[in-house]
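<goal> How does this chain fold?
<sample>
Here is the protein in question

***
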Amino acid sequence: MAVVIVTGSSGLIGSETVSFFAQKGFDVVGIDNNMRKSFFGADGSTVWNRNRLRKLHKNFRHYSVDIRNQRKINFIFERYNSGIVLIVHTAAQPSHDWAAKDPIVDFGVNAAGTLVLLEGLRQFCPRAVFVFTSTNKVYGDTPNWLPLVEKEKRFEIEEGHKYFKGIDESMSIDNCLHSVFGASKVAADIMVQEYGKYFHLRTGVFRCGCLTGPAHSGAELHGFLSYLVKCAVTKRKYKIYGYKGKQVRDNIHSFDMVNAFYQYFQNPRCGEVYNLGGGRFANVSVLEAIQMCEELAGEKFNYEYIDLARIGDHIWWVSDVSKFKSHYPMWDYKYGIEETIKQIYHVQKDLVL
C-alpha cells in the first residue's frame, strides 16, 4: 500500500494533489481542518471541496486535524508509516494581510506546523519524499527594487536585465521587508531545507508565485485571480490596492504545480529549492485580468482603486523556472492565463447558478 499524505487537502493545491495521486492508484490521506474559513470567512471555506473529493475518490481518507497538534499528527504518521512514500505539505496561513493581525497563529501554522510534519517524516517514514509549498514572499520586497518600466496596463522589467526572463533562486532572501507572513514562511522554508541537508532527508522546497485554478476558494485577502473572477461573476465590487492596478503576478495552474511535484517525487534531491510559478508563460497584471473578465462576461467590471499598496506586496513577480526545468526536463506547462481564467469563470458561474 503506497500512501501519499496531503496537508491542506481541501485547498487548491492540496485537492489537486489528492486527485492527481488518487487517479494514479495511490492511497491518499488528507489532513485539513478548514482553518481557511476562520482566516477568510465563508468565501474561504473549503468544505465543498472536501465533500467533492470524498465522492470522487474511494482511495481518499480525510482527517480534520490541525497540523500544529503533534500528538494527532504523529498518530496519523504512525498509523500509515510503513506505506508512506510522499508527503505534500500545502497547509498554511497564506495571507500577509491576515498574518499582521495575529502573528502568533500565523507563525504557529506556517513554521511550527511545518516542523511538526518534518519530525513526523524523520521519526516514522524517513525514506519518504517531502514536498513543501513555500512562497515568493520569502524574497520580501527585494523584487520591488528592480528597474521596472511603467506601461499602459502593467509594469515590466527592462529588457536585457538578468531577471528579464524571471526571478531565479539567486535573489537574496535577506535584508528586506518580508511581511509577517513572509517571515513565517522563510522559517519553514529554511527548516525544510535543513532537514534535507542536515538529516539527509528527501525534502524539496517550491517557492511559488500565485497558485490558481478552478478549485480555488478565493477570498479578498488571498487568491487574487480566483477572487477577481468571482467578483466578475457575482458583480461584487473588487478593490485594487496600489500600483495603479499594474502590478504583475505570474499564475501557475494547480495541475501544472502538482505535475511538478510528481516529477520531483520520482527523482528527489535532498533540501533542494525551486522557484516555480507561471513564469513568462503565464503572468498577468490586475488591469489585464480585469479586461479578460470583462470580455468573458460581456460587461464592465465593478472595481474601486485604493491608492495604498499592501505592505511587502510585489510590484512585479515573474518566476524563472529554468532550474526546475533543467533538473526535470519532462515537465512543462499545460495551462496558460486565458484558459485558466476561463476555467475559473465557468466554475464560478455554475456555483452562482
User: Anything to note?
Assistant: The radius of gyration is 19 Å.
